[in-house]
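Protein Entry — a single chain follows
Fields — amino acid sequence, structure tokens
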Amino acid sequence: MKRLLILSALAMFGSACGIKRVPLDVLEKLPYEAKIELLEAENDLALAVDRLDEARNEVTRARDLIRRGKDRLSAAKDEVGAAADQTSREVAELAVTEADKRVEYLRAKQRVNVREEELAAQNFTCAQARYEVSRLAAARKAKLEGSESLDPARFDEQLKGCEADYAALKEKTKETSAEAETMRVDWDTARAALAKKTFDARASPFVE
């Protein structure tokens, strides 16, 4: 059942470009004992699929938050024009600043989400590469016909290359996260100013 789910996920997300695979005709006669040894690699692949799926969902959810944040900013700007007195105008202007900083943060957070999606996709590619290393090792151990012509070094090399790319992308993700954190602090400051002016009446939570 798990193998079927993995195959379905591979079809859904697409196989990584350039991943060298062990031909299926080599694996046709893989003994049961060898298949058991592949369970860890299959679990790794299944987790990578889940992580990629969740990363993509997070990007979608963030789009909705940005849309709502922009609506909030528009409404706050309308408040400024409708303010009947100086105090109301000051509150409205603080609300505009808070809403603007909110949108800036949400956009920065979305950049992090996109990076996380890229990272999850790369992790998925590495999981596939790791899976192929395990499958080749199992095939060669079982001395299956055709496995002797496949060079393990090439499979190991593609895995190392994938992991190096993953490490580089992870560093970029850290940089993007640091930028988003700066935006979050700016938004918190604006939100605190609005809350103070309205005696916490306008201290709205992030998720409304």
